[in-house]
Amino acid sequence: MIHQCFDLKSVDFAQLTISIYSGVSGFMQRITNSLKRPITLLSVLLLLVPCLWSLPIAGFAPAQAAIYEADPPESVLTDDIVETELLGTLDFFDGMPSEATVQKTYDFIDVSRGVDAFLNGIPAASIYAMLEGLIDEDIQPGDVGIFEGLMNARSLFLTANSTTMYVVGEANVKDGPIVLEIPPGILGTIDDAYFRYVTDVGNVGPDQGQGGKYLLVNPDYDGEIPEEVDYVVTTPSYRNWLFFRGFIEDGDLAGTADAIKSVFRTYPLAEASNPPEQRFVNLTDRQMNTIHANDYQFFEELNAVIQYEPADAFDPELLGQFAAIGIKKGQPFAPDERMKNLLTEAVKIGNAAARSISFSPRKESVYIYPDERQWISFYPGDSHEFFDNGERVLDDRILFHYMITGVSPSLVSPPVGSGSVYGMTARDSAGDYLEGDNTYSVTLPNPIPVNNFWALTVYSGQHRSMLETDQKTAGLDSNNPSVKANPDGSYTMWFGPEAPIGHEGNWIQTMPGKSYIAMLRLYGPLEPWFDQTWIPGDLELVQ
User: Fold this and answer.
1) Pick the CATH number of 76-137+292-360 from 3.20.20.330, 3.40.50.720, 1.10.3360.10, 2.60.34.10
2) Rounded Cα distance, 376 and 399, in Å
3) What is the mean pLDDT of residues 499-512?
4) CA 23, CA 55: separation in Å to the nearest integer?
5) DSSP string of 92-114?
6) Region 503-524: what's the mean pLDDT?
7) Whole-angstrom Cα distance, residue 305 to residue 39?
8) How far apart are the first and last CA of the chain?
9) DSSP characters for 215-263?
10) 50 pLDDT exceeds 90?
11) Residues 284, 517, 504, CA angle at the centre, nearest 5°?
């Protein structure tokens, strides 16, 4: 048969016609010469029709019908040539991808899974970076760091503040339960190795600000619980982040530190009969980092978490996502050159995505006062687990963990008059990014709905920690004696590289050439915050 001798599937139809005509003419001439008499074109065509019918001309020749023939819709079939925006041309043979298409799609899958691993791995990498940052400062599990002189911009912590006294440490239950003796009057939380909420301590915790003895255990702990333990708390991970804030009265830093240090203790339950002396490390003015990487190192941080923690500490779907890029418990993370290059690309895209979600959110629900103000919320869905009608809102989780530390229901909806609430903005009233070269003002209407105090702080658009300026506090709060109210009781605060004349006491310094984020905190928020009858102003550009 002719189709057995000629592969015409990819031949242009017009060219094929010319070739057939030439071939038929030559064939007729040879037959005429052989038979010594002319032969008609019709005779030759009659001979060739069965062969021509079987030719796969340009892919349109009818295939032999199957006895059990289906009628597949076009939607389930794949064309031989597929054009895409991201990958260009993808080619197939009857649904079978070519080698070039296979390579393109695997590269795309590996990059996209790397991006997802970055975005969904931020909570774990963030906890890891904080705990490792403490170890770098010689604060081991069982020790605690305390900012006795408050925190300032020299210490890199995601959106921390300089108005309360932070106490931070690691509670590690790998070798057994840990006892925590919590002092009264503090506000704090314990989160696990994936930044999931474990418990509150202090004012919004089970002890309701009275202090008490907590016991932190793994789910499989079946030992005795001492009678003197007030609260038993279970955590699915070995490493846990403990942090709480002490509130300063009348500017008495030393008194606040002493009150905390005289009560707080943490030690293994196995040593409860003779606890070791508690070690405190003053972290004020330390140049230290507790923020996860935004380059390839991020995946190494994530791998360290997976290797250390129990295999069942995380969601299987999440572990599958990490395993798809080579991060698998019990196995070395050693990507080849191709994979390392793709993961380097992935983290670049993932970092850009996290910054877009954080600084240019496209969801209306993120805004506290939609269409009225630029202030956004870290918990737009009113869920510390980022749930909304059964779904986990991934962008909400990314926004929170890229910017904030400390997951707690009390941050979502604290009791009226207790806890704290937040509003953040990276933009002025016109929707433009805040720039350190410019001067802005913001007015907080009277009365500001707080039971305790309010604060405004500025953070770097790069590392999301306190903005590095010549001002130690990177912000101001209502306890500061320099802050003055307007005649009507409202407060107008100023942001800029230089203090505006006559408003020096209400001025927060920014740096030329640097972006920044402004954050409003209300400690002990009152009802007008929750029902939104109180609305803070936007940052207005001062010409």
Assistant:
1) 1.10.3360.10
2) 10
3) 97
4) 15
5) EETTEEPHHHHHHHHHHHHHHHH
6) 97
7) 85
8) 86
9) EEE-TT--S---TT--EEEE-SSS--EEEEEEPPSTT-HHHHHHHHHTT
10) no
11) 75
CA distances from 461 to 356, 376, 509 (A): 12, 15, 15
- In whole numbers, what is the pLDDT of the chain averaged over residues? 91
User: How far, in Å, CA of 110 to CA of 116, rounded?
Assistant: 10
Closest CA to 451 of 378, 374, 525: 525
Query: How many whole angstroms separate alpha carbon 21 and alpha carbon 5?
Result: 17
Query: In the numeric block, which tokens belong to residue 485?
Result: 């109210």
pLDDT in tens, 350-381: 999 999 999 999 999 999 999 999 999 988 88
Residues β-bridged to residue 268:
178
- Domain covering 139-285, topology: Immunoglobulin-like (2.60.40)
CA–CA distance, 35 with 41 (Å, rounded to integer): 15
Phi first, then psi, for residue 535 (nearest 5°) are: -130, 115
Whether domain 361-541 has CATH 2.60.120.600: yes
Tokens of 294: 């935004």
Region 508-524: mean pLDDT is 97
CA–CA separation, 73 and 296 (whole Å): 44
- Res 418 pLDDT > 90: no
DSSP states of 391-458: EE-HHHHHHHHHH-----HHHHSPPTTSSEEEEEESB-TTSPBPBTTS-EEEEEPSSP-EEEEEEEEE
Cβ density class 39-77: b for 16+ within 10 Å, e for less:
beeeeeeeeeeeeeeebbbeeeeeeeeeeeeeeeeeeee
At 412, is the pLDDT very low, low, confident or very high (cuts 50, 70, 90)? confident
Question: If you search the block for the tokens 């019709």, which residue do you land on?
Answer: 42
